[in-house]
């Protein structure tokens, strides 16, 4: 680990002043500290923001939900309002990492985490995320766990967050605070596809910090849930996953929100699946036909072609579970 300075910010103003000078924000540290140990990340200065007043979970005036950036994953998952309004969020969090990590990691840190691509974490391998212009070893290497959506010639790494998939499905908004004040970014624009600049992963400006995540109000009743398929049942990242929210009224699907993980360079929204569902009556045939559209535009690599069929089955299974007609 390389030498660095450490500052514990007493308030938001002190944190922003230090961030303006190029420091890196840290709270739970469950991702950044690991990357520093492996010399993937070498920040010269760390700013501990764990004392900032960003740990509340509240219902918004419009009936949505706002979760502070410093709320621990375990706290958000267990919060009665989160569980009641959006079970998909609680389930995504509970299926993430280990209990010990969930007790430390924060909501803001979770969506800022970097890929688990082994080539990214191996400093001897070519990786455009770690060293722009060096190449992508995963593109023609062992890419079983890599993306089939949103890839480019520069990067094929998946985004690892389960929570981010749920936030994508629910069309959340990220609130930020920086030297120029507050601003909000739709979650669909917050995590960036690699293109030719895979080292740019989030739409965060220099010195900005995440203050909270807001889920808009959705018409009720809304049934939601998260399904994660992986090589082993615990402490493993997704091969495929599906975050689904459905509103069924009068026997007809009135609203459908579907996003998938483990298959994209960012959490991948499935608008074609959503369109196929809305206005239809739940049925065996509908779930199967909608799931067939889950892989439109997929670009499998040498070792991850199995994800195409696996994703269809994952989406269909979750639709059946939440929508009935099993």
UniProtKB/TrEMBL annotation:
The keyword DNA damage does not apply. It holds the Pfam family FAD_binding_5. One of its GO terms (molecular function) is FAD binding. InterPro entries: CO_DH_flav_C, CO_DH_flav_C_dom_sf, Diverse_Substr_Oxidored, FAD-bd_PCMH, FAD-bd_PCMH-like_sf, FAD-bd_PCMH_sub1, FAD-bd_PCMH_sub2, Mopterin_DH_FAD-bd. Keywords: Oxidoreductase. It comes from the Bacteria. Residues 1-220 form the FAD-binding PCMH-type domain. This is Xanthine dehydrogenase YagS FAD-binding subunit. It comes from Streptomyces malaysiensis. The lineage of its organism: Bacteria, Bacillati, Actinomycetota, Actinomycetes, Kitasatosporales.
